[in-house]
Every structure is written in structure tokens, then in C-alpha cells.
């Protein structure tokens, strides 16, 4: 190891709107040394994820905000270059949370060793890491796709959306992606194997969804919210499932989006007949406090089942989404007598 300096990117200030270079500061410092029970690792890969925008904010969230003046947070794949920890040897490859810096010292808490024979080590930050887990759990545990159903995925070319569509195809579904450029759509259909992809920036999304999903939408995996969510809901089928995973369209917003904003409606509950058959659960896709897979944004899961299930990892509690109106309507339908019975009860003397 010949390096003597460590380069770090610090969060200089909290961004208002879209982050810029003024919000960060590149600094150099002496290379840290590992103490007893620690190791020194050099960063090979750093994952840049949408959740980081929320960590830059000082607002209360599911995780503590990144500290101003400190190294910006982020998941990393690193190689151990010096160790005084018996659990880690020089050359070990690890998945950690060292943030935006070239070298880091750690005790190994929350760190996972990687086996390069299992696949490229960069996959630990993608399909075999938090993004892949988010796609897997959101689609299979919440979306529950069935063969022959239509699954629509927003941000389809991203780390999460790209995996969602491929799993949907494995499950025998028709996978339709939404992306913002023709190049992304070509990647989604040509390389990832989606059945179709809609460029929502150049096409009328409502018309495009009508043409591409003539039988309606059974599962909508939402990474963006905003107007795209509103357009998709016009084509959603009764009994459809909507994993609400991300708010990419609103991460840099400086004021509330113009109404109607359907995301809070789905989270907090509504009497809308469009969504009155579901159940919402807020949770994250990584164990509470975990530093291994990274914490993803809070999820709200819309389930077609009325039976609450055991919360998934970080889920705190279940909230019924318009369930009272759904149950009462069902009760009325079940208890309502047939027309002939109703006539007899109304006119008991009628023969």
C-alpha cells in the first residue's frame, strides 16, 4: 500500500431543490490507521442511490440525516488493505457502509464478506444487494404477480426497476416499463427483455398505456409517484396490487406538488372505490438499523388481501386502506336478501 492520503467528499450544506457541487466539498486528509480490533479498507465501488437525496435533508425520516461537515453516506464494496481484526484478513472483499471516501477504518460491525466466485463484486450494490432485495420483496411479497398478468414498472431502467421487470418475466407476466428516453427504452426491451417500454416524455402516457395494456394493469411497481402514478391508476384493474416504493419525482421538490397528490391518498387511506379493496403497510426493505444492505425509502404496500400478515423486517404497523368501507360494503352485499326474500320480509302477508 503506497497511498498516504485519503480523499473524502463531505456534505458541505443541505441542498434546497436539486443538489449541486456547492453542497459538497472534496478534501484530503492523512491516511487513517487501523487500531486494535479494526481494519483499513480501500473503496472499490460506491453505490449512488435515490435514497441519498433524503439523507441530505435535515427532515425527520426513517434514518438519521447525513451530518453536515461529515463524509456523505453510502454503501461500498471495499478491499481490506491492513487489519488488526482477526475476523478480517488483508485482501478480503467486503460490503460495508463507508460512504464517499477512498479509505475507511472499521471494526467490522454490520459488514459482510463477499465471495467473488458467486458473481462480480459490484453486484453486491445492485442485483445482489439492496436494490435487488427491494425489487424482489416489493414485487413478490406485495405485487404477487400471477402468470398472464400485466406488470408495469416505472423507472424501469434503474437498479430496482430493471430487476422487477426481469422477475415479472420469470413469473410468466407481461412486463411493461416506463422510462424517460428512447435509449433507456431500447435497453429495457432489448437487453432486459421487457415486452414493451413507454417513453413518458415523448408520448401521451394515458393513450400509450391504453394501447400497450389493453387488458388493464394488474401490478404497478411505483418508483416515482407524481403524475405518472395518476396516469397509471386510470388503467388499474380491480384487485390490482401497487407496491409504492419511491418518490423520485418529488425528491427535489421545494414545495408540495399540485393536487391531487395521490401518494398520500394511498398511504393514509381513502374511500375511493378505485383502491377500496386494499391494505396499506409502511415499512422499509432492510432490517431496522441495518448497515449491511442500506436502508431504502419507506414503502407503502397495497394488498388485495384483508388478512394482515406479519410485518416484513422494518414494518412498524399495518393501516387499513379504506378497509372499513370495503368491509361494510361486503357485509351489506352478503347480508342483503334476494329480491324475493326482501319482498316477503317487506310484505309478510303477501302470498
Descriptive overview:
Helix content is 24%, strand content 23%. The protein has 351 residues and is an alpha/beta fold. It folds into two domains: 13-124, Medium-chain alcohol dehydrogenases, catalytic domain (Quinone Oxidoreductase, Chain A, domain 1); 130-334, NAD(P)-binding Rossmann-like Domain (Rossmann fold). The strands form three sheets. The protein has an eight-stranded mixed β-sheet, sandwiched between helices. Strands 6-3-4-5-7 form a five-stranded antiparallel β-sheet, with no helix packed on it. The protein has a two-stranded antiparallel sheet with strand order 1-2. β8, α3 and β9 (174-179) form a beta-alpha-beta unit. The chain is globular, with a radius of gyration of 24 Å. 38% of the residues are buried. Mean pLDDT is 79; it is low at 269-351.
Write the layout of secondary structure elements.
Elements: E1 5-11, E2 24-30, E3 39-46, H1 51-56, E4 76-83, E5 93-96, E6 103-106, E7 112-113, H2 130-143, E8 150-153, H3 161-170, E9 174-179, H4 182-190, E10 196-199, H5 205-212, E11 217-221, H6 226-233, E12 236-244, H7 262-268, E13 279-283, E14 299-303, E15 317-320, H8 323-335, H9 339-346
Parallel strand pairs: 8-9, 8-11, 9-10, 11-12
Antiparallel strand pairs: 1-2, 3-4, 3-6, 4-5, 5-7, 12-14, 13-14, 13-15
Helix pairs in contact: 2-3
Shape call: globular
The Cα radius of gyration reads 24 Å
Measure the end-to-end span: 100 Å
H/E order of the elements? Answer: EEEHEEEEHEHEHEHEHEHEEEHH
The helical percent reads 10-25%
Q: Briefly, what CATH class of the largest domain?
A: Alpha Beta
Task: Assign the structural class, choosing from mainly alpha, mainly beta, alpha/beta, alpha+beta, or little secondary structure.
Answer: alpha/beta
How many beta strands in the DSSP annotation?
15
CATH homologous superfamily caption of the largest domain = NAD(P)-binding Rossmann-like Domain
Mean pLDDT: 79
Strand content: 15-25%
Low-confidence stretches: 269-351
Number of structurally distinct domains: 2
Strand order of the largest sheet: 10-9-8-11-12-14-13-15
